[in-house]
Amino acid sequence: MASEVVNTAESLDFPADLKYLPGFGNHFSSEAIAGALPQGQNNPLICPFGLYAEQISGTSFTAPRKLNLRSWLYRIKPSVTHEPFKPRVPGNEKLIADFNQSNSSANPTQLRWKPVDIPEEPTNFIDGLQTICGAGSSYLRHGYAVHMYTANKSMDNYAFCNADGDFLFVPQKGRLWIMTECGRLEVIPGEVAVVPQGFRFAVSLPDGPSRGYVSEIFGTHFQLPDLGPIGANGLAAARDFLVPVACFEETPCPNYIIVQKYGGELFTAKQDFSPFNVVAWHGNYVPYKYDLSKFCPYNTVLVDHGDPSVNTVLTAPTDKPGVALLDFVIFPPRWLVAEHTFRPPYYHRNCMSEFMGLIYGNYENHMQAKADGFIPGGSSLHSCMTPHGPDTKTYEATVACGENAGPYKITDTLAFMFESYLIPRVCTWALESPFLDNDYYQCWIGLRSHFRKEDCSKASSNQDAD
Ligand SMILES: O=C(O)Cc1cc(O)ccc1O
Ligand SMILES: [Fe+2]
Prior knowledge:
Blueprint: E1 20-22, E2 28-31, E3 52-57, E4 70-75, E5 86-87, E6 104-105, E7 111-113, E8 129-137, E9 142-151, E10 158-162, E11 166-173, E12 176-180, E13 183-187, E14 191-195, E15 200-204, E16 210-218, E17 241-244, E18 256-262, E19 265-271, E20 278-283, E21 288-291, E22 312-317, E23 324-331, E24 334-336, E25 353-360, E26 379-382, H1 392-401, E27 408-410, E28 414-420, E29 425-427, H2 428-432, H3 442-445, H4 453-465
Parallel strand pairs: 10-18
Antiparallel strand pairs: 1-17, 2-20, 3-4, 4-20, 5-19, 6-29, 7-26, 8-9, 8-29, 9-16, 10-15, 11-14, 11-16, 12-13, 12-15, 14-21, 17-21, 18-19, 22-23, 23-28, 24-27, 25-26, 25-28
Bound molecules: 2-(3,6-dihydroxyphenyl)acetic acid and fe (ii) ion.
Catalytic activity: homogentisate + O2 = 4-maleylacetoacetate + H(+)
Binding site for homogentisate: 363, 388
Protein name: Homogentisate 1,2-dioxygenase
């Protein structure tokens, strides 16, 4: 418990030495003022210091205990104290939470986008968020969305609340200062953060123009993957996940606006205080962050290219065992040592769908075969059964290197994949976007046949002689 730290954040300043609580799935507790958490019960008649008790649940009350998520917030005023929600004008028409024929289409071709420009006009995180693709519906609590954000303005006197699902933030350019009801998260490119469904949060941009990726999941939450035969350790360690400590604002804010995303539409409600007025909290339903450089990769040590699932950081399950609504997978710096193996990703068609982004560096830069076109801030989508794999340059350079490729370290790169069982529909604006790379398919067109027919006849005549 962070009871000695008195975080009375009179402004939303983020100190350099932000404190966090470590762990994943823990029952945490945090007090900005010692004694603010009720002891022995959640909902006393009068809470310490006259605070209001409020529960936020992330699963139905009756969910099995091992899945049950909820937290208790002790706040200066309860979040119900606001004027009625009204449709936000203007809304954000590029935000989709119910994928259908009016807003998106099926597209089985290989798709790739260049990095989207960060606008010049003042744009905050809410207005700069645009859905690229997704499947299902937040109304039915089954599905996901992949968004990109570009923004250059902090959310002042605005808080966002996503009633549809959980957001996983993957910043690519610029730090995010995410103020949440549980406290502050600083997230730099190379780190990721999760803000679960329903938490109010405000995004500030201390570095100015910023860009990144967001995945949103409907109806479930992220878990750490099972490790199977890997054993009890490896990949993302629970203790490297960081949860904010309680921190509150109490200065009057006469025109504070809550922007609620509900069914993909935006609604606003006015209130006269900051929603970041939680003096203490406890529970297991919390925002958190994770530094991807802490990931402990496992990989091939003799032959063949392992499947990318070995690099799963977080997984959001479906009801089918082992089948993900959304896996968050990374391709971090690591040694390649496989012998007589084609080391880059194999050519493949996957029954799952793969959205990829690049945080920095070159993706799978095997033997410096610099594949063009997939640039930091860009993205690609290879949907269910859409063939893909290394481009011509990478194939030729890998084969030219032959058996001489000794141990080789892939460095200075960080790519990721959102992989889903559900077949994505692609949003209309994303298909019409000037950033769509219409020549993407060209990167494979040069792949030549290396088939040596003469070797086949030699092999069969040798066989006849035997
Ligand atoms: O398509 C991709 O680049 C992602 C990917 C990487 C890999 O090493 C194996 C399979 C796979 O889908
Ligand atoms: Fe793939």
